Amino acid sequence: MEIKHSHIVLDACCVLNFCASGHLIEIIQSLPAQVVVTEVVRERELLTLQRLVDESNEDTNQFEAAMEKGLLAVTDFNSESEEETFVNYVFELGDDGESASCAIAVHREWAIATDDKKAISFFQREAPNLQILSTLAIVKHWSEVANVSSATLQSVLTAIRIRGRYVPHRHHPLLVWWEKMMR
């Protein structure tokens, strides 16, 4: 996987999946770009992570540790045009997190990581130069860079499926890889 941009904006779904995997920090460390989340995603996802039924609250701890280590930065709108684009995207997509992530990615020419089919389809039309990554693309990249064992990778993908409630759609370009790794 080639990253064509200096930064990757993670949408909420990817943050939740990486936290569910139990390997958020290792996955982010494998990426050759600065990884960021928008302030909108940070506010909402921290709340979601805190609500997850997990006595140790490990997901929140991973998220906060990634921010403390500087592996995951938080960014917010820095111009009226970014905010205006955000409002327009909310109208189109109906989701604040994806809209904020995409508005910032479009204006700053950064890559975005999302699994939302509607958002992916919209941005492929509206911003064809935007590199769109997915949970599976990033996990696959991490597994190759870090030489992750098959057993660990299967465990990570199972955790993402169960705890993150993520299953790739039937046209996902990495569906065959995911199915092979899950056997």
Task: Explain what this protein looks like in three dimensions.
There is one protein chain. By secondary structure, the chain is an alpha/beta fold. The protein is built from ten helices and five strands. It has a five-stranded parallel sheet.
Average pLDDT number = 90
Query: Span between N and C termini?
Result: 23 Å
Unreliable stretches:
none
Strand content: 5-15%
Secondary-structure element pattern, one letter each: EHHEHHEHHEHEHHH
What's the shape? globular
How many strand segments? 5
Please state the oligomeric state of the protein chains shown: single chain
Contiguous helical run count: 10
Radius of gyration: 16 Å
The portion of residues assigned to helices is 55-70%
Strand order of the largest sheet: 3-2-1-4-5
Summarize the structure.
With 183 residues, the protein is an alpha/beta fold.
Question: What's the structural blueprint in terms of helices and strands?
Answer:
Elements: E1 7-10, H1 12-21, H2 24-29, E2 34-38, H3 39-51, H4 58-68, E3 72-75, H5 80-93, H6 96-108, E4 111-113, H7 117-126, E5 132-133, H8 135-145, H9 150-162, H10 175-182
Parallel strand pairs: 1-2, 1-4, 2-3, 4-5
For this entry, give a set of tags.
183 residues; alpha/beta; single chain; 10 helices; five-stranded parallel sheet; 5 strands
